[in-house]
Amino acid sequence: MKTNIITTSEDKGKKVYRQISRYYLTLEQDVIADSEDEAFTKLCDGGGIDYQALNRDVTHTSCDVETLHVDADWYESDPIELIGTIDEEGNIE
């Protein structure tokens, strides 16, 4: 099981859960152009989402919550899933 969450022996007996949530992203952009075709071309070439900027910095994390992956397109959330239990050495089984 892959996770970036940090555990210690003090977490013994606690469980690690994972939830995957999906989001739709609404993006509204204005463009200056001489025609609708030119506007479409400009938006395709120079508009849209900067996917390199869509990263873990857009999420909230703490010492007990870590982000593994970021994508935009929410439409539902899966049920919370148990992915393991922390043992006495702080390892997740």
Account of the 3D structure:
- The protein has a domain at 20-77.
- The protein has 93 residues and is α+β, with helices and mostly antiparallel strands.
- It has one helix at 36-46; strands spanning 15-18, 21-23, 75-77, 81-85.
Secondary-structure topology with pairs:
Blueprint: E1 15-18, E2 21-23, H1 36-46, E3 75-77, E4 81-85
Antiparallel strand pairs: 1-4, 2-3
Helix content: 10-25%
Mean pLDDT: 78
- Classify the beta-strand content into a percent band: 15-25%
Distance between the termini: 9 Å
Tell me the radius of gyration.
Answer: 20 Å
What is this structure, in a nutshell?
This protein has one helix at 36-46, and strands at 15-18, 21-23, 75-77, 81-85. By secondary structure, the chain is α+β, with helices and mostly antiparallel strands.
List the main descriptive attributes of the protein structure presented here:
rod-shaped; 93 residues; alpha+beta; two-stranded antiparallel sheet
